[in-house]
Write a structure and sequence with these properties.
The protein is mainly beta. It has one domain. It is about 10% helix and about 35% strand. It is built from three helices and 13 strands, in the order βαββββαββαββββββ. The mean pLDDT is about 80.
């Protein structure tokens, strides 16, 4: 198995429950199913930016005894380094600026979407930008778990219980033999 990318988002646990969403409620980050926590700003139902109380201030991925990146990312004084690290490791088409890096405006201020709604911890394990080369992390060679170590400035569950959801992109090769048998192991 060739692990290429990992993405983690922090969201309220209550999203698994059905909610009635009105236009006013949708503005508030806590009711928007497409907004993620962890950034330093929050968006109120009135559309005002406020300082978040439970933001991520340090993180690192780990597989076996190897850390990705090699040292923890410390997010002081803002989360820009997490965004830059994600963008540096991901292979963006024509170096285009992603949507999460744009500014979000309200009547008085502008804030990066990454800080307000689109906080995503992402990492690419590719060693080459060539899609034809298998160059990700070989996660089949050991039974080691892949973990994400998160540090928050305060208890992230104090105001609203949170959950972390992680998504993995991987590439597998399916070998089909002449008799119709198939396997992901070449033999």
């Amino acid at each position: 198995m060739n692990l290429t990318n990992m993405y983690s988002v922090i969201m309220p646990q209550s999203w698994s429950q059905k909610q009635s969403v009105t236009n006013t409620k949708y503005l508030a980050k806590e009711f928007d199913p497409y907004s993620f926590n962890g950034g330093r700003k929050a968006l109120s139902a009135a559309g005002a930016f406020t300082d978040a109380t439970d933001y991520v201030n340090k993180y690192v991925w780990r597989y076996g005894s190897t850390y990705y990146p090699q040292s923890p990312i410390e997010l002081v004084p803002d989360s820009t380094l997490a965004l830059e690290t994600s963008l540096a490791t991901l292979d963006l088409k024509n170096n285009e600026r992603p949507f999460m890096a744009t500014l979000e405006d309200n009547s008085t201020d502008s804030q990066p979407r990454f800080e307000t709604r689109d906080f995503v911890l992402a990492h690419s394990f590719r060693k080459s930008g060539d899609k034809g080369i298998v160059s990700g992390l070989n996660s089949a060679n050991s039974g080691a778990p892949i973990s994400l170590q998160l540090h928050f400035n305060s208890n992230p569950n104090a105001s609203l219980p949170k959950s972390v959801q992680t998504f993995i992109e991987q590439e597998n090769t399916l070998y089909i033999k002449p008799n119709g048998e198939s396997s992901t192991v070449a033999n």
